[in-house]
Amino acid sequence: MTETVLESVRGRVGEPVLSVRDLSVSFRSDTRTVHAVDGVSYDLHPGEVLAVVGESGCGKSVTSMAAMGLLPPTARIGGSIRVGGRELVGAPEKELQKIRGKDIAMIFQEPMTSLNPVLTIGRQIGEVLRRHQGLSRKEARERSVDLLDLVGIPAPRSRVDEYPHQLSGGMRQRVMIAIAVACDPSVLIADEPTTALDVTVQAGILEVLQSLRERLGTAIVLVTHDLGVVADAADRVLVMYAGRSVEEAPVHELFATARHPYTRGLLGAVLRPGGEGKRRLPEIPGLVPSLDSQPDACTFAPRCGRADDTCTGGRPGFRSVDPRTGTDAAHRAACWHPYAADEASDTLTGTAAAEPARPDQEAGK
Asked: What's the pTM value of the predicted model, to 2 decimals?
């Protein structure tokens, strides 16, 4: 990684390339309204990898789709999303088309359903280049070959004329990455980029993303539920639950001293190779709440062993959780009763938070 990118990540130098403030997204039908995202805020700086984690249905992908302006007409969006100082919420579609692919791009979760099966790989990469950079068909083809080489696809000059079904799952995902970075966007959103890939291919995809960050200074939002991927790739972590952000911290600090009970529950449920003999993995009791309402309370309270009347009587805000100074803005939690840094977990998780297995460790199972 270059010195400039390192300084940006460690000190978060300069203005954020992506700034999300009090984002809310709801979907209305004839019978009910679902509040998929409720008051999420974060900043992403140049060269930084922010992992957004949580259970399925917690709002991770909806938050990302809102940033891309790709939500359906039934979605109602509130708050602010700024890319390079430009407001995206409420922007007309023509303006969003100029920004998507050029300033902010996305790697979608399932490449086989995202790539067009009747167009060659080169044609699909070239479409982005011709639209945003005005390249000729010949120039776009040559640039497509370079991009396939950049993301580690062997024999790129022959692969550029192949169709998606002729490629493996890992190679299709690399093509999606090539399309996303074709115009050197400042922000790259990777929505579950390693889903359904085996551990070896998964490690290769993560290496490609890290290489792009180091070469181009690209800022990455990594959406995942895999804590092993988070430990391997992220600089900072945002934990979401029931549409809300509940904890944010530097990655190593989160794994070592998670403060929110939900985060500790996630970490406690990770299988660790070489752990203590045969034991039942701890689980978080109860069910994820319905998103039909926006309660003025902690949404995790019904499942939390530390909850009391305070938790059910008001919504906790994001606040510093350093018990010594009270000013540790880098680690925040939305909890009325956060764990202290040296406090062991209670019966909710049954184990202290620890770093989950990395992808290379899991490969040795």
From this structure: 0.86
